[in-house]
Amino acid sequence: MAAAWSDQPLAAGTSAPTRVLTEDALKHLHWCAVNQQQPTIHSLAGVLQISENRTADLLTAMQNRNLVEVRPDGLQLTTAGMEYALHGARPPFVGALSGR
Question: Residue 25's domain is classified under what CATH number?
Answer without folding.
Answer: 1.10.10.10
